[in-house]
Design brief:
It is built from 18 helices and 18 strands. With 486 residues, it is an alpha/beta fold.
């Protein structure tokens, strides 16, 4: 069983609706790749990779490198609470790929399309660095995430306006914040190679005369989606990715609505019976609809889960958890007549008695304001007697590491395992390593810890760390390297 938790004791598992890209971070300078890559403790077999790549044509190398090009996501950690902007066609490159790209010129040529495919600019300085490296990025950048800075200031708008026409291979643009500059939006929508502009909110500008066929709204509640204003946007070509519905909003009115491009529905059930009579006619008129989430279930589980309920009762688990959410996926191939829906995911609300069942646990402290001693947090994890994998996200700012940390920082910097040149990053990595060592000693069943954390200053991203740390042996020592991601 895997679970996503908030501390100290929020035991509701949640689903990851969208792949979560990191917040906009500083774009790396191409020339800086070399110095940053040297700080990575890359794969010991790098020399063997370099020696063995010569016989392969570039097409084969491309497929091989694709396997290490992206940082693997934490499996089993599910989180409905954070809806990030929709899935990207192009993922973020892994730190290992950055190191591999500077090992050999031939490898660099193969790696660059992966390294530069997805770029985020969240600040003026990010945009300046991108503009500096435009001759190279113009060939490979497919996805560009633009922070609100480009809509807030004239300087931000000017530099973004200069950058966009130079990105000749650009396919999609993401606007994760609310926009209120119509000129900037028109430039983005008019870009000749861009096919989709993903937005979290409908821009606060007049769009009455614009062709919105490239614009995709990540999510809308039924109150907004049913409004005359949105009807106008849909008529102009805007598409909707996910529609949120309350139980009382489904019915004859929904059956006669049409939402172009709709892929997902979130239906909040609460304490009412689960209706399905509307689904068949609605899905017949929405061929792209392929996911249905039944959320906030307060009553008994849906009838199609009766076999699961019966089996849990047979094993005496009926008092250990209850089903609070269900994810259904439309069976492929999707066609207008397909009504074959299958369960793909469950959200479980659990009780204290289920600690013995959980093997994978996720902790996200992004929305917390309190501070927690690392020993206290480790003692909470130690209560889970079968825990093997822990996913830590945005925990650094919420942890109190204590006075013993300074000696630990000096020791890891002296032995060269952590780069001491970047002091804020080195301090963060050493403290997170200290916390992981504390977990390994208190949680005796622990095998691995996955860390995904970052810190921002007024100038932009200060550091970003992501990677796996593993418990090596019976001594409970921890090994592994946390790398920057871009």
């Amino acid at each position: 069983m895997s679970l996503a938790l908030g501390i100290p004791c929020n035991c509701t598992a949640r689903k990851q609706r969208f792949a979560q890209p990191p917040k906009p971070c500083l774009l790396f300078s191409v020339n800086a790749c070399h110095s940053q890559a040297r700080t990575l403790n890359f794969l010991p077999s790098l020399s063997r990779i370099m020696q063995s790549c010569s016989p392969f044509p570039n097409e084969i190398l491309h497929h091989i490198i694709e396997y290490v090009a992206y940082t693997p996501e934490m499996s089993g950690a599910i989180d409905l609470g954070s809806r990030s902007i929709g899935k990207s066609l192009f993922k973020h490159a892994s730190p290992a790929l950055l190191a591999l790209s500077v090992a050999k010129w031939r490898l660099r040529r193969v790696c660059l399309p992966f390294l530069l495919a997805n770029i985020e600019i969240g600040h003026d300085k990010d945009a300046q660095k991108l503009e500096k490296d435009l001759p190279l990025c113009a060939k490979f950048t497919k996805t560009l995430v633009i922070g609100r800075f480009a809509a807030l200031t004239e300087d931000g708008e000017n530099i973004t306006s200069r950058i966009l026409p130079q990105l000749k291979q650009l396919v999609e643009v993401k606007l994760p914040d609310c926009w209120d500059r119509s000129d900037m939006l028109r430039i983005i929508l008019a870009h000749p190679t861009v096919t989709s502009v993903l937005v979290d909110e409908v821009p606060n500008v007049s769009m009455r005369t614009q062709n919105l066929s490239k614009m995709i709204l990540n999510y809308s509640s039924s109150s907004s989606a049913f409004s005359p204003q949105f009807a106008t946007y849909f008529a102009q070509g805007m598409r909707l990715m996910c529609l949120g519905l309350e139980n009382d909003s489904v019915g004859s009115r929904l059956e006669c609505m049409n939402f172009p491009g709709l892929e997902e529905i979130e239906l909040h059930i609460r304490d009412r019976p689960i209706p399905f009579s509307w689904l068949s006619p609605f899905s017949s008129t929405h061929p792209t609809l392929n996911k249905l989430w039944l959320l906030n279930i307060k009553q008994d589980a849906p009838p199609f889960l009766s076999s699961l309920v019966e089996e849990s009762q047979r094993q005496g688990l009926q008092h250990v958890f209850r089903i609070s959410g269900v994810g259904l996926r439309r069976a492929k191939p999707i066609d207008r007549s397909s009504q074959d829906w299958r369960v793909m995911e469950l959200s479980l609300s659990i009780t204290a008695g289920s600690k013995r069942l959980i093997e994978i646990l996720a902790l996200n402290l992004q929305c917390h304001k309190g501070m927690y001693d690392i020993d206290d947090v480790a003692s909470v994890f130690a209560r889970f007697s079968s825990l093997r994998v822990i996913h830590l996200q945005y925990v650094y700012e919420r942890l109190n590491f204590g006075p013993s940390n300074e000696n630990f920082v000096r020791s890891v910097q002296e032995d060269g395992s952590i780069d001491s040149l970047n002091e804020p990053r080195a301090r963060a990595e050493s403290r997170l390593s200290l916390f992981t060592s504390c977990l390994a000693k208190q949680v005796r069943t622990l095998d691995s810890v996955y860390i995904d954390d970052e810190n921002y200053t007024s100038d932009g991203c200060d550091w970003c760390l992501r990677g796996w740390l593993h418990v090596l042996d019976s001594s409970r020592d921890v090994g592994g390297t946390l790398g920057d991601y871009y």
